[in-house]
Amino acid sequence: MELPASFFAGGILGRSIHLSASAVAERQGIAGFVAGSSMVGLSNQQAAILNALLGGILGSPVNLNVMSYQGLAAANVTLAELVEVSTAAASTKELLNSHLSLNEWLNLYADAVNASDAVDVGLTAAMQSLVAANISDLTVLFSDVVAVTTDTPEAAAQASVNLFDLIMTTAFVANGNHFINLPLAVNLPGNLLNVSTQLNLIDPPKMVIGPPGMNAEGQWRTYMETAQFDLTTLIQSTVDLNVAGLAGARAEIDLALKLEMAQGEAWLKSLQCAGVNNNQTRVTIGAQPGTAMLNLTRATNPHAATGNISVSAVVLFLPVPVANVGLGLNLPLQNPSYTDLEYQVNLADPDDLPQTQHANTAPGLAISNISNAIELDVTLLGAISLPLLDQLIAQALLNQVLTPLLSQVGTAAIDPLLAVLGLEIGSMHVHLTTVEVDRPDLQI
Question: Are residues 219 and 161 in the same domain?
Answer without folding.
Answer: no
